[in-house]
Design goal:
9 helices; alpha/beta; Rossmann fold; Cytokinin riboside 5'-monophosphate phosphoribohydrolase; 266 residues; two-stranded antiparallel sheet; 7-stranded parallel β-sheet; hydrolase
Length: 266
């Protein structure tokens, strides 16, 4: 099915089938940048109220596109991961494991580790979802997305990653990956969300960060040792998916003891 465009770029774009947004021209000043600029005198009256309506429309369109996709796992990782990297291969295996478990694979829709996870999911016959973002240096969704949405605003997109996922699997990544990781940890730690396992994959890569948290942040009293229990670390894709599924199911059963029985009989 051809992409259905809601206006010209950078409007939200829904697509089923291979991504058709590669090469899309993105403005040098993004919508997020303009939103976050300081107030400009009377300009507030003429601009920000309209931005509120555009933000509202992004939420509505995102909810509408994802509401019936079924259970999914959000997979994060670096856009800079090259295709000949072992981490890229790991991402493909993660996406395939997610699909084999009967779950949708949600990524940021970009290149690198995101592309790898989408590739693994679609090649395994699963649902491959890409939530793109308007950036001055990155255009379009990777070719392994069969349901894609482009967002202007980071915070709207972040809501979708959380709302429509059973949990996170986090491949080695940089600033954007760390942003999503720590935001999810904060939401769980503050009990804004409860049924949300967070699994890091790649123990060698994450050892330094976890060592610093354990050796510096915990002794300083800025976090508690129990906060580190919110993060699980594995090296095997199948194990990562299993832990997300079991973690989400455990919390659901705590809320409703009949949940597990109903699930096993279905």
């Amino acid at each position: 099915m051809a992409a259905l465009s809601r206006g010209s770029s950078p409007e939200n774009v829904y697509q089923r089938g291979p991504a058709q947004l590669r090469g899309t021209q993105v403005p040098s000043r993004t919508t997020d940048e303009r939103l976050l600029e300081g107030r400009d005198g009377s300009g507030w009256v003429h601009t920000d109220p309209w931005r509120v309506l555009r933000i509202q429309s992004e939420f509505v369109e995102g909810f509408g596109a994802l509401a019936e996709t079924g259970p999914a796992i959000s997979v994060f990782g670096s856009a800079r991961t090259p295709r000949d990297s072992p981490v890229y291969d790991l991402g493909v295996r993660v996406g395939a494991a997610v699909a084999r478990a009967g779950l949708g694979c949600i990524t940021g829709g970009g290149p690198g580790a995101m592309e790898a996870a989408n590739k693994g999911a679609i090649e395994a016959g699963g649902v491959s979802i890409g939530l793109g973002i308007e950036l001055p240096f990155e255009a379009g969704l990777n070719p392994y997305v069969n349901l894609g949405i482009n967002f202007r605003y980071f915070f709207v997109r972040k809501t979708m990653f959380i709302k429509y996922a059973e949990g996170f699997i986090v491949l080695p990544g940089g600033m954007g990956t760390l942003d999503e990781l720590f935001e999810a940890i904060t939401l769980v730690q503050t009990q804004k969300i409860r049924s949300f396992p967070i699994v890091l994959i790649g123990s060698d890569y994450w050892a330094g960060l976890l060592g610093w948290l354990r050796g510096s942040a915990v002794p300083a009293g800025t976090i508690s040792a129990a906060d580190l229990d919110l993060i699980q670390v594995v090296d095997d894709p199948e194990e990562a998916v299993r832990r997300v599924i079991e973690g989400a199911r455990h919390v659901a059963e705590q809320r409703d003891p009949s949940h597990g029985t109903e699930r096993s009989q279905s």
